[in-house]
Amino acid sequence: RHCFTRGEDGYLYCEGLKVEDVMESMEERRPFYLYSKAQITRNFEAYEEALAGLPSPIVGYAIKANNNFKVLQHLRSLGSGAVLVSGNELRLALRAGFDPKKCIFNGNGKLLADLVLAAKEGVFVNIDSEFDLENIVNAARIAGKKVSVLLRINPDVDPQVHPYVATGNKNSKFGIRNEKLQWFLDAVKAHPNELKLVGAHCHLGSTITKVDIFKDAAALMVNFIDQIRDQGFEIDYLNIGGGLGIDYYHTGAVLPTPMDLIDTVRELVVSRGLTLIIEPGRSLIANTCCLVNRVTGVKTNGTKNFIVVDGSMAELIRPSLYGAYQHIELVSPPTPDAEISTFDVVGPVCESADFLGKDRELSTPSKGAGLVVHDAGAYCMSMASTYNLKMRPPEYWVCIQSRIF
Ligand code: LLP
C-alpha cells in the first residue's frame, strides 16, 4: 500500500501517474519534489485508527518536517493539530486554519514576541527552562491571557538514534531534569493568574524504530504526572512527542506502525485518565514524496563511479548532514544491455559532502534519465537551502486517487 510503485511496464508511478511523464511535462528542467496526496491521507488515518477509543487525543503534526502550505491545509482538513517551534511556524499554522486548541508551541529558545502571539491565540505552550517560564509569564501579562502550559520533561531515555536527532537524554539542551521539577511546580503555583499547568511533555528523538523506548518513557512520564498531581495540580495531558521512524532502507523489514506505538502506551494513558497528545512529523509525511532528479552525466575517478544529477545537498541535506540513507531508484526500467555498477550519486554543489547516496547498485543511466530519492517528504524541502545560488525546488502533488489501495 504505497503511492510510489513500479508498473508492469517497469516504470515508476506516483499513484496512477508515470513519473517520467511528469518530468517530461515540466517546462523548467530542474529537480522537484513530487507528493501523493492520497498517501498523506493514508498516513494520517493510520494514526486515527491507532488512537481510536482514546478520549479526545490530539495529533499535533510537527510542521518543521514539512511546511508546504497545501500539505498543512490538507492535514488540518483531516483533523490534525500542529506542533510549532518558531513564531513563523505558529503564524503559518494559524493561516492554514489549524485550531489553536490543537496547537503546541515547543522549543528551547522561544522569543517573547512569539510567546505573546501564542498567549493571545490560546495555543498550548511547553515550558523548557527557568528563563522560558519567566518569558511565558511576561507574555501572559502582555496578552492579558492565562496560558495553558505543559512541562517539557527530559526523561533521560536513550532513543538509540543518531546523536543529532536524540533529544530526551541527559545531556540534551531540551527540557527540564527530574531534580528541578519541584522548582517548576513552585514557580507555576506562584503565578496563578498567568499559568495553568495542564500536562507534561517529552520528546525522545527522531527515527526511533523500537517502540519499547516509548513504553519506558511513558512509564517515567506517568510517574512524573503522579508526583505533579500529588501536589494538587489537576493535569490532563500526556504528550509523548513524535519520533517514530520509517523504512528508509526499503528492505521490506517490518517496522513499528502508529498502531504499535499507541498500543504500547494505551493502558498507561487509560489507567490515569489522561488525554494523549502525539507529535509525529516524519511518520506522517516522509514516505509521501520523492525528490525527482535528472542525470547530468556519469563519470569514473580512480576506482569510484559517480552518477551526477541536478539535485544536491542544497535540495536534500539529510545524507550529508547525518549520513542518512534514502533509497534511490531510476525512474525508467533498465535497457536489456545496461551495465549494473556501484555508484555514488552526487550533485553539482562545490563540496565533497554533496552526495545523495553512496555505493548504490544501479544500472548505468543515460544522460537526462530520471532518478528519484525516496522518502523525501520529511526534513528535506524544509531544510533546503540556496547554497551555490541553487533555487529551492518546486513542489507538485498528485491527487488522482482519493485512497491508497
Ligand atoms: N516534537 C518535537 C518536540 C520535536 O523536536 C520533533 C522533531 C518532533 C516532535 C517530530 O519528530 P518526528 O516524528 O518527525 O521524528 N532533521 C532531522 C530530524 C530532526 C527532528 C527534530 N525534532 C532529520 O532530518 O532526520
UniProtKB/TrEMBL annotation:
Function field: Specifically catalyzes the decarboxylation of meso-diaminopimelate (meso-DAP) to L-lysine.
Orn/DAP/Arg decarboxylase 2 N-terminal domain segment(s): 38-286
NCBIfam families found in the cross-reference section: lysA
Cofactor entry: pyridoxal 5'-phosphate
Classification via InterPro entries: Ala_racemase/Decarboxylase_C, DAP_deCOOHase_LysA, De-COase2_C, De-COase2_CS, De-COase2_N, De-COase2_pyr-phos_BS, Orn/DAP/Arg_de-COase, PLP-binding_barrel
Taxonomic source organism: Acorus calamus
Residue ranges occupied by any Orn/DAP/Arg decarboxylase 2 C-terminal domain in the UniProt entry: 33-377
Designated name of the protein: diaminopimelate decarboxylase
GO terms for MF: diaminopimelate decarboxylase activity
